[in-house]
Design goal:
This protein has 9 helices and 7 strands. The protein starts with a strand and ends with a strand.
Amino acid sequence: MRLRVVIVENRELVAARLKAKLEILDHDVVALAKDGWQALTSIDKLAPDLILMDFRLPGMDGIQAARTILTQRAVPIILLTAYSGADLARRAREAGIMAFLKEPVDAGQLRATIEAAMARFAELEAVHQEVTNLKEAWETRKSVEQAKTALVRWLRLSEGEAFRDLQKRSRNTNGNLEEIASTISTVDKFLLRKLGGVLSLEIIVSAIRRGLESRAARSPAAISVEGASRVTPGEGALPVLREPR
């Protein structure tokens, strides 16, 4: 898919190289911005499909700029950075950034990161169909990301397969994505904390399925885990997810 891209980068040589790589990948660079404020103006006028944003910008940094942009418009943002670390990753996730791109950038890495960012943004759009408020949609996406991580870990699915699995479970139980994601995340935390992640895959799958099947129809997001002390690896006994009274 041909995308209209805004590059936010104050280093002219880096911006030119990114532009050339994007054009090789058959995308159109519709604007080059040097800081967050220029980006806001360009994005408001041009409504791009994607933003490539450097972390180190004059004035506000790339994460602050992304947060400001995303309060006004839903658009996938990729953060360019030479750095890494838990705090940076946390701030980026909380701001709503779709993906990281480590510098220096090569065309193959750029292509793969764009594909991942657009796939995650499509998931956000699906969530947005259920939750019309943009802020609530971002919050729901966080729950969905946690649940996807759990499904990837325990059921060995790809990210795309995990999201489709969440959608299928949502349809089959007449719930919504946030409710399903919350249930799966609760089971995931239980398995990691109480059982040390040493169960067989068969028991893990059963635990997740039973947790979903026992989700109460009235307020499924509010659940508690019981029976943790009675479950040991290899037993077949599983935690029961019940709605608190």
